[in-house]
């Protein structure tokens, strides 16, 4: 079972999410938090597989909570679920360590798929969010190209990651084994000085690979 922690300051939102996600055969609600500070506390107490994190919350906002949780539990997955799609909210959340970013207008089925995909190591961004991220990156200053550290095959894998593909899909596309893909991913992340696939995908876009 996928154990989920819901962090949102609106009880109605938590209730609706809890009802839908509990109907999924592979998901259960581990707990609920009404603010970022409570989310941080429950993350340590409940050890959920993934946290659905709102951004605008009292005491500690979603970005601060995400940063604090990732500092204490680097492998814990966090999916931002919010109404904000502008760069001022998206970029800080991704940089804080969020594994995905969805808007609250997302279809329920797509939300469930996003949760499963993130736990499978994929990156999931809402289309509106992706457009803002691309615009932000295209306007940013380019520093030393980190891609020069990668081998030709690692570059191929990175291009596929930027397309949002899973390890299985990458293996089929490049005609290599899934185990080999995992090995390439493990090697290229530290070379790029990023912690997860989402940040690797954003870097690939910034450097013109996608």
TrEMBL record:
<keyword id="KW-0804">Transcription</keyword>
<dbReference type="InterPro" id="IPR058245">
    <property type="entry name" value="NreC/VraR/RcsB-like_REC"/>
</dbReference>
<dbReference type="InterPro" id="IPR011006">
    <property type="entry name" value="CheY-like_superfamily"/>
</dbReference>
<dbReference type="InterPro" id="IPR016032">
    <property type="entry name" value="Sig_transdc_resp-reg_C-effctor"/>
</dbReference>
<feature type="modified residue" description="4-aspartylphosphate">
    <location>
        <position position="54"/>
    </location>
</feature>
<feature type="domain" description="Response regulatory">
    <location>
        <begin position="3"/>
        <end position="119"/>
    </location>
</feature>
<keyword id="KW-0597">Phosphoprotein</keyword>
<protein>
    <submittedName>
        <fullName>Response regulator transcription factor</fullName>
    </submittedName>
</protein>
<dbReference type="InterPro" id="IPR001789">
    <property type="entry name" value="Sig_transdc_resp-reg_receiver"/>
</dbReference>
<keyword id="KW-0238">DNA-binding</keyword>
<feature type="domain" description="HTH luxR-type">
    <location>
        <begin position="143"/>
        <end position="208"/>
    </location>
</feature>
<dbReference type="InterPro" id="IPR039420">
    <property type="entry name" value="WalR-like"/>
</dbReference>
<dbReference type="InterPro" id="IPR000792">
    <property type="entry name" value="Tscrpt_reg_LuxR_C"/>
</dbReference>
<dbReference type="Pfam" id="PF00072">
    <property type="entry name" value="Response_reg"/>
</dbReference>
<dbReference type="Pfam" id="PF00196">
    <property type="entry name" value="GerE"/>
</dbReference>
<keyword id="KW-0805">Transcription regulation</keyword>
């Amino acid at each position: 079972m996928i154990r989920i922690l819901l962090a949102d300051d609106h009880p109605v939102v938590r209730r609706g999410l809890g009802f839908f996600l509990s109907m999924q055969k592979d998901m259960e609600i581990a707990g609920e938090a009404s603010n970022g500070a409570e989310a941080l506390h429950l993350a340590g107490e409940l050890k959920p597989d993934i946290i659905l994190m709102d951004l605008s919350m009292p005491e500690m906002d979603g970005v601060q909570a995400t940063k604090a949780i990732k500092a204490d539990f680097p492998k814990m997955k966090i999916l931002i679920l919010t109404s904000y799609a502008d760069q001022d909210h998206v970029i800080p959340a991704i940089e804080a360590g969020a594994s995905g970013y969805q808007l609250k207008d997302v279809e329920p089925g797509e939300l469930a798929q996003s949760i499963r995909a993130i736990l499978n190591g994929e990156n999931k961004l809402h289309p509106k969010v992706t457009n803002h991220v691309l615009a932000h990156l295209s306007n940013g200053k380019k520093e030393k190209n980190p891609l020069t550290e990668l081998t030709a095959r690692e570059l191929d894998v990175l291009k596929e990651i930027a397309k949002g593909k899973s390890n299985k899909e990458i293996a089929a596309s490049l005609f290599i084994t899934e185990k080999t893909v995992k090995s390439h991913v493990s090697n290229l992340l530290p070379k790029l000085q990023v912690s997860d696939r989402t940040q690797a995908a954003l870097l690939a876009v910034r450097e013109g690979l996608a």
